[in-house]
Specification:
Elements lengths: L1 H18 L1 H24 L22 E7 L2 E8 L9 H15 L3 E8 L7 H19 L4
Parallel strand pairs: 2-3
Antiparallel strand pairs: 1-2
Helix pairs in contact: 3-4
Family: Belongs to the MIP18 family.
Keywords: Chromosome partition
Subunit structure: Monomer and homodimer. Component of the CIA complex. Interacts with CIAO1. Interacts with IREB2. Interacts with APAF1.
Length: 148
Amino acid sequence: MEAVLSLVSLTVTKVLQFSGLTDNWNAPRAKKMEEKALEVYDVIKSIRDPEKPNTLEELEVVTEKCVEVQELGEDEYLIIIRFSPTVPHCSLATLIGLCLQVKLQRCLPFKHKLEIYISEGTHSTEEDSKSASFIFERHFHGLCGTRS
């Protein structure tokens, strides 16, 4: 009996995959993650650069593509942000990361964990970029924790 149920389950799974119906089940989830990412982007795009009168969006420090949201559980999300400093030798990259973290903690209405990184190849050297990412992982990840 168990073998028959296993065979039926496998057959149904294969039929759904070939028919494209399983993609339709994932579509609402993918759309929900895109909507959450846009919600996050709407919060961070208006942050002003510490040295310039422009917003991070205007300076292309953050873009819609730099925000990724993954579902961790029911109504809990992992937000990953990869920003690009305005110049390769930007000394305020850590401050920008902190601004992102504080703004999201204050403004997002849903439970989340946050990871902030400098986009690869956008800082003065690859090693600077890696060490800055390490700083964000080590310090900000712990600070960001889960928002209740």
